[in-house]
């Protein structure tokens, strides 16, 4: 008896791929037979940088998953950390027609999974019982702020495997944990037939075979669909063969139903994002490689949002400027799409000085970044608030800055300063010393564009954003 498992992961709201993905899924289901095929998604289908997602609170994604015939999904960090419990309840409790399987995300208040989720799910295909366990990456410092008591996967999955194994013929772990954790799980947890992975965007064109477990993944952005063909011996009641591959979707014709569905939801999203959220008396320019009013406004907003002495953010978070006149929600999304959260931390004067020096160097400003929530192109220079920097642009590297004043006082190398910045720096990407900050406090569910919106509505903040923070030697502190 032949069975087929189809899987995707880390599509990140690449809606341009979804009609072709649906076409591949339907063709492959037709080949094997609907009653012998199981279709799964392993998380991060959602990404709030896309207007179709942002303008519908994720409903477009759920509608596509429903219409494409997915039978079960697990959550990635882009679902779990981008939305509040109320939104997740609407999406997965009322909108979804598939099972949401996630074993390690109980609510802090109850200690139980939410009503819309199950720790495991058993599906019967042609008389074969297939057990599914879903698990997501463990980020307690973030999840706790949203009311989730996320659990360590290796504390939760092994006992579930032992519990479920006698009840099923085939056992699959839907793992949004990353490749290294999948390899570890295959090696350490007996009884798993398939691990379908995601999170680290790894593509396994050939599966990994670790012990008796097949480890599979389809990369990122909907470029591939995973296909696993299983042979089941009903007399012996065991798997006798498992073969896995991936199929590229680029040359597949589009499924017209899915394309039309995305178009309909896209119109709804566009109408929502077209609403006016602020009105500007002046144009706000941006600059990845120098000081700008919009960069200053965002840095100042972070300082005020978290009540700190200093505000710091990389200019590459901004992908555009804002004209004089009305500002829409869609314009804000376009210029600040990254799902990055505010973060308060402590940094010494020496650490701050090093980051400021790095921000003047082309190798940092031009550094491309990938992941960690960043949806821009390059790091850019540092936008600052709460301090004044005097520097010599012709000075030697790491010796360009001649003076820094915080609140009118000279920067002290050993003193710790309270800094309002972004969570991305705590992952030790970008400016090296900012990853050394201590006592980080994260602010969720707000994104940078939420901080920016508050500042756009504040007349005093707008006026102050034109005051220089970076001054060359001998230059008076005039406006931008």
From TrEMBL:
Pfam families, alphabetized: 5_nucleotid_C, Metallophos
Residues annotated as domain 5'-Nucleotidase C-terminal: 283-419
Keywords, in A-Z order: Hydrolase, Nucleotide-binding, Signal
CDD domains to which the protein is assigned, alphabetical: MPP_UshA_N_like
GO cellular component terms, A-Z: outer membrane-bounded periplasmic space
All copies of domain Calcineurin-like phosphoesterase, residue ranges: 3-202
Designated name of the protein: Metallophosphoesterase
Organism of derivation: Paenibacillus elgii
Classification lineage: Bacteria, Bacillati, Bacillota, Bacilli, Bacillales
